[in-house]
């Protein structure tokens, strides 16, 4: 029987997050260790993850699957393989980190956290790709992001706004998180979010959420930045980035963090029309939002309310953006993206909608290369079109 035939439904009989550790156990590896032993021992090598893994689908190679990579992690942890083994270096980099293996895992393996710990060792110091080192440095330049956001016209609220603190954050109401790079690359997204929810405070003085660091070899620094952002934005934090939402929620708590489609799910909208008919739209899930937080119904419900929704066969599979992956491994990123572009163009849709800026960039670039007539838009922008 194949792994896909044996695969349980998403979340069926799956232990809750955190089940890999006994009660009271400290989170993370012990001093001097690479992996948290409670997490590493969780995998039962059942193979349910194989059918869900994009890199295994590309290669058919066991080492390129979550099960195979955990076997490599165990070999590294036990000393069976040396830290400079080329297979370890290749597979820690080749993994997208999409966490599609987690919802189908009957043992509740927290693979995303294991990958962060692995890259903390594999990408230490100058072993980290140069482009990643530069991005991590850039992400912490809050002053530069503030200036870029202001020049590009990203949303903001003045410190003099009612109920706002000196930083511009609301002491009691919800705040909109501005992504490090989103505010300069896609400034219209925050403007649309604020137009849809004008009660959101949008303080300019907010830092990085730490997801970029955690996923690229600096898990401890990532947690520090997430905790600092949680202090900078007191109260509920609303984000337009699925990846940031998942990481921030893991660090400061799910009760503090809400993705935009969750926040707007009960808001009434009009509809988006194209040439006199309801627009046909499809969704590209954010991997971490879907696989980490379990948020995927909300954006579909909103899109179904404003347009004719078309479910793509691979909507829940990674688009190949995967944070820094498209920059570190552009050829492999395109191999993951190309079948998705085929599906998008065959679906006869007007818009493909993203809930994460990295996915939006990836889809726009891919569709532009193909000279496609399909437009890639952020869900905030499409909802704003429906609200007009």
Structural summary, described in words:
With 388 residues, this protein is of the alpha/beta class. It has helices at 3-6, 37-40, 54-59, 66-78, 86-94, 111-122, 130-139, 142-152, 182-185, 187-196, 211-214, 219-232, 242-252, 260-263, 287-293, 297-306, 325-328, 330-346, 357-369, 379-387, and strands at 175-177, 237-239, 257-259, 273-274, 277-278, 280-284, 308-309, 351-354, 375-378. The strands form 3 sheets. A 4-stranded parallel beta sheet has the order 7-6-8-9, with helices on both faces. It has a 3-stranded parallel beta sheet with strand order 1-2-3, sandwiched between helices. The longest helix is centred in the last third of the chain and has 17 residues, at 330-346. It is globular, with a radius of gyration of 21 Å. The model is unreliable at 1-21 (pLDDT under 50).
Fold topology:
Blueprint: H1 3-6, H2 37-40, H3 54-59, H4 66-78, H5 86-94, H6 111-122, H7 130-139, H8 142-152, E1 175-177, H9 182-185, H10 187-196, H11 211-214, H12 219-232, E2 237-239, H13 242-252, E3 257-259, H14 260-263, E4 273-274, E5 277-278, E6 280-284, H15 287-293, H16 297-306, E7 308-309, H17 325-328, H18 330-346, E8 351-354, H19 357-369, E9 375-378, H20 379-387
Parallel strand pairs: 1-2, 2-3, 6-7, 6-8, 8-9
Antiparallel strand pairs: 4-5
Helix pairs in contact: 4-5, 5-6, 10-20, 12-13, 13-15, 18-19
